Amino acid sequence: MSVPQRHHRPAVHGLPATGAPCTGRAVATVPPARHRVRFTPDLLDPADPALARAGGPPGPRLVVVEARVYELYGRRIHAYLAGRGIDYEVLVLLAHEQLKTMDSVFRVADRMEYVGVSRRGDPVIAIGGGVLTDIVGLACSLYRRATPFVRVPTTLTGLLDAGVGAMAGAADHGRRGNRIGPYRPAAETLLDPAFLATLDRRHIGNGLAEILKVALIKDRRLFELLERHGPVLLDGRFQDRCPGAEVLTRAVHGMLRELRPDPREHRPERLTDYGHSFSPTVEMRALPELLHGEAVCVDMALTTVLARRRGLLDAGQGERILRLMRRLELPVWHPLIEPLTLGEALADTARHREGRRLPLPSGLGRGVFVSDLTISELADSASELRNWAAEERAAGGVRA
Ligand SMILES: NC(=O)c1ccc[n+]([C@@H]2O[C@H](COP(=O)([O-])OP(=O)(O)OC[C@H]3O[C@@H](n4cnc5c(N)ncnc54)[C@H](O)[C@@H]3O)[C@@H](O)[C@H]2O)c1
Fold first, then answer.
1. pLDDT value at position 145?
2. d(CA 138, CA 15)
3. Which stretches of 59-178 are DSSP H helices?
4. pLDDT tens digits, residue range 28-61?
5. Is residue 177 located within the same domain as residue 264?
6. What are the pocket residues of ligand 1 if the criterion is a CB atom closer than 6 Å to any ligand atom?
7. Same domain, 70 and 144
8. Nearest atom of ligand 1 to the alpha carbon of 164
9. Residue spans of the chain under pLDDT 50
10. Which atom of ligand 1 is nearest to the CA of 169?
């Protein structure tokens, strides 16, 4: 409802004259965050209209495809778009963590300008991993006060996290990850696990770390499925319906359930932030050594030890978690897990989350929030974890 401005004397350049009472009203300027996520197997089958119809009425489309994905699926993408009679333009973009920059964002914006993408109508389609979908999301959020976009994640991390979160669009700045970005939701996200068939083993493991996060903090059954089938999932790249489909569905639904009450991700206390307390700093400082999920796993290994030392996990549960991480071929330790980096990471996360509490596992599949971590507690946990990893390595473990 509008409350008219009342000026007792004429306003000059839109400002009330001196002494006039300032009246006005709050104006809601942020559009509601609506965002649809759905599984769409066989997405590139021209018989399936899902991609052609996603995000808006039929019309011309700019399709931004990550370079490796284009090598593997370019022919099928062209066949799909041509087969559905779409007037389209493809931009092939090299996208990896070191290229998550504003330069990449501007390359997408340049092409949007070149093809004359209209502001409200034709969505841009992003097909690729989390880096590509974040870059396109940011370009679309900035271009002409926001252009709709559709995400088609092609990595496991993308399917679970980068593709499922309602807030999409970010670039790195300086030594900080994802510092620039309005986090505006995609119009629609289409999940097709068939893309995982070509993903390399390390990136499957990388995504499994995010699944493990959901399992540890929210879903005991998911943890048990990973214990039973983790190595098979690594080998089979989620192409077997059983157990791949159940694991993926539980993990995606776990993420969505957590995000649903807070689509804009403003609530600072979220269980799915587990594994993301120290990892942002470690990941950026270790670049390009650790992938996102690997840094998350190192964070979870540290906080598993910490939770066990606090009595939130018993010794057997702590051991099961660390052993599962190793069976998923994920690192459990890194030289940056040391007091100085951990202290800085904690301060940065506390600032980012406005001092709110951090999640820790409490038993398998449950979490609690704490606000009283100390540097000495972190240092003791780090040193215990280092010893565990060293013993494991000496005993012939996979990778620390
Ligand atoms: N927006 C969010 O909510 C959110 C959430 C989690 C993570 N992220 C971001 O996601 C990024 C990590 O994403 P990622 O792990 O997908 O990494 P990525 O985008 O770098 O992709 C990993 C590699 O996989 C290749 N690739 C992609 N799809 C493939 C396929 N189907 N077959 C073969 N190779 C393929 C790519 O060429 C790339 O080299 C990080 O920058 C992180 O910040 C965003």
1. 74
2. 34
3. 67-83, 102-115, 130-142, 156-157
4. 555 556 788 999 999 999 999 999 999 988 889 9
5. no
6. 66, 68-69, 72, 95-97, 100, 128-132, 134, 154-155, 157-158, 161-162, 165, 167-168, 177-178, 195, 198-199, 203, 206, 292
7. yes
8. 3
9. 1-16, 22, 399-400
10. 1
